[in-house]
Amino acid sequence: MVTRVATYTNHTLLSDLALRNASRVTDLQNQASSGYKSRNYSGIADSTQRLLNLEGEYTRTEQYLRNTTQAKLGLQSMETAVDSMITIATQMKSLLIQASSIDQGDDVNVKAQARQAMEQVSGLLNTTIDGRYLFAGARTESPAVNIEKMYAPDNYMSGSDVTVTDATTLLSLGVTIGQIQIVSTDIDGNSVTSTVNYDPTTDDIGDLRDAINSVTTNGAIATLRGLGGEGNERLNIENVGNGSITITETGAGNLLSILGMEKMPNPREDVDYYEGDQQILKARVDDQYDVSFGILADNPAFQKLIQGLGIASATDDEDSLVVALRFISDAIDELPNVQGQIGLDIANIERFESRHEDFKVFAAQAISDIETVDVPLTLAELSQHETALQASFISISRASELSLANYLR
């Protein structure tokens, strides 16, 4: 039946309503099948900018959470390593106290135990995560410490009953003219032999030190310092390349015996074992905010533990073991502070982590509210529109059948 002028308006209105209903049915079918309001931004034009903002903030939050997770894992590994060092130090302290006992001293192999402990400490300070050394500062690609440089230098030291200063003359000590031979061997096995002459009629301890130090190729250095940095000054002649040193009297003199020179370790107050840098790591945990975190392997608490173990691993001398015990006791007192600092860093990072986790939940829900539909409700609405669409088609069909003849019947 051809649409007439009289029925054109009604036909057009019914057709328009039916087409809009059909479009809505199609949209609802797509939403019900996909769970999303639209397959493109134009379908949610009124919420597009807010969605884009939320998606950008959500992505940044995920990156911040990755940063905090990585930093926290590193700090937790550090915390565990320090806890292990406290255990090692406590065990070594007990061994040293046991070794000083008359009844039990012979049953304790302090040197072997100290060397084993040093290897454990070296491994802990070279702890890695994903190939990154945690205690090395920003030089995460290289080990933080070199175990060969952790032990006290090979060293000869004058006796505790001999008082010396740079101004002490050799004559006043009863030294006779002679010479000593110093053989220094580096860690690669290369040795250098040097001879130092001394004359008690003209030389004092300062002159003797200068003579040893002026022979720059002998790999040895002479200093005046107390055992472990404490007590009366003693003459120390030590290897400077973490190798070995041997000193013998080659002339007719008696310098070594008069000074009571004995081979025993006397650690310098340095951190030559540390091979990292001084840069503290940072993690970006929020917009325009970085958190500094981490501990370096040259921390004084680690240094004292290493010095104590270095002494105990090289001598049975009672005076030296007393100094080793003092260093280790000091380390036991200070290591919990290091552990506490790491704990504070973890707590600081966790505050940001918690904040970002909360925002991530909020943002995910907000994004879901903009993008997705409630499928059961959508199906119910779809059913209503499908019913209305069918009714529209019936109305259009019946309207097209209207005629004067049909009306008169």
Automatic annotation (TrEMBL):
Q: Which GO terms describe its molecular function?
A: structural molecule activity
This protein's record includes keyword Manganese: no
Q: Which InterPro entries match?
A: Flagellin, Flagellin_N
Q: Which UniProt keywords apply?
A: Bacterial flagellum
Please tell me where this protein is predominantly located: other
Query: Is Cytoplasm among the key words of this record?
Result: no
For this record, an example GO cellular component is:
bacterial-type flagellum
Cell compartments where the protein resides: Bacterial flagellum; Secreted
Q: Which Pfam families match?
A: Flagellin_N
* SUPFAM superfamilies xrefs: Phase 1 flagellin (SSF64518)
- Report the residue ranges that make up the Flagellin N-terminal domain in this protein: 14-139
Entry's family note: Belongs to the bacterial flagellin family.
Name of the featured protein: Flagellin N-terminal domain-containing protein
